[in-house]
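Encode chain A's predicted structure.
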Amino acid sequence: MLPMPTRWWGWGDTAHSFSLAEHSRLWPFISSRIGELATANLPVDINAIELPPPRLGAAELSELAVLAGGESCLATDKESRVRHAYGKSYQDLIRLRRGQLDSPPDAIVFPRSHEAVMGILALAVHRQLPIVPFGGGTSVVGGITGPDQPYLVLSLAALNRLISVDSISRTARAQAGISGPELERSLAGYGMTLGHFPQSFEYSTLGGWIATRSAGQQSSQYGKIEDMVLALRLATPRGELATLALPAASDGPELKRFLAGSEGTLGVITEAVLRTWPIPATRDYQGILMPSFEAGITCIRQLLQKGLKPATLRLANTAETLATFAMRPTEPSGVRQWVNQLAKRWLGPLNDRCLLISGFEGTIAEVKRQKHYALKLAKEGYGGVSLGAKVGQEWYRQRFALPYLRDVLLDHGIMVDTLETATMWSNLSLLYQEVNKALETALANWGTPGLVLCHVSHAYLNGASLYFTFIARQDPDHVLEQWWACKSAALHAIVANGGALSHHHGVGRDHAPWLTKAIGPLGVQLIQSARHAIDPAGLLNPQVFAGTDKLQS
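Encoded structure for chain A:
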């Protein structure tokens, strides 16, 4: 069994947390907007959780261990089963914190080779045993929830190596279970980077990124993960499925694009060949205070359509901007004083202002040129005020820390969840307004007025994504019903107003009821046909895309 360094009931390493004492303005900011807070509600002790015994027989478990590589490659203990039962969605965390595991896995297997994965799948077919592939376990859409029957979690944690690097072609072949930090450390030895840094970077894996079509925070420059994939190798119930690494081809529909985003339903990704980039000579991240969300959106669009290649353009709406400033450390700092002085001198109160983070990576000369142009356009074209590099650098340093805050809010009876979408520039403002309104209305109808934050998270030549966070007091008697009312209202607004069902979180179980609306009944039939061709018995991640063969009202 492999080491498990993360919290079983929340996010990240137990050595790290989000300290409210060091961010004393944040608590008053949240409570002033959502009302009186509930009594602290801490997770149960793992020892108090009662699990049914594994439903697999001794002969099956022994055979699985042999196929995986030995007894150390199989786990059936309570902690392992708890840790692999759910991902990190709001619904998942509520159930984990309560100790309510309706259908925990019966065993977790850690194969050490592609061939071992093939053998395990062959046994699964023979035994009619469902399989849930598991990367870093960071899914926030119910992407790794097992069925209500005996099933096996197949963890890719032992397939964690960089296999080879082709420095001439600037490509790398890696096993799918390699984590973000380990992949970057390995590539750095060759002077290369993948350039893929999602917020889950520290704990997610290459295979998970590909299976969900993940987007890193620097996607405007490097692309989404599917743009980086040149070839894939999968183990399936029908045999191996592999594509050839090529710069381009015209040999039918592009299989690697079809396989990316399949969320473990079309096979288990074991290896990938990836485009890589030289480590940039410099990085420059700036904070810019824009006079409005609309002004910021137009500025971002103009920057991209005028040919700039930023790594990051991230624009917060007013609510998220205020929350960002409230999260600054308690002690007075030169950065905060300067921000306040600039805001008062040039823009007045912060009540209508929006924070834009612009980031450029590359050669020193090119970064300098692009930064200069971006700041000039933001200032002269749209009334922005530069907050300088310290604000940008602070965001860059803290960009993986926010999931720790969610745990603290849950401790205090606060509902907090996220969802994201994407659309074309011409539709972006409408989509933003409609989803924002849907969330605010749902929260008000539930009797728990809340806080709706949003930022433009990834921007492209033709459009951008919107990333929403909604925060409110939990209804202690209807915690999951309250959450579902809010999330479903937002998803209805997204599909009704031309937005992507998901930009980078995937479909999982939570978004499945809207998939037919998003891609049409024929699109769903195509996915189901491919799934049946590869996995006739429906054993691979059976909860994902579940029910999408029926039109949703």
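The domain at 55-155 is CATH 3.30.43.10 (Uridine Diphospho-n-acetylenolpyruvylglucosamine Reductase; domain 2).
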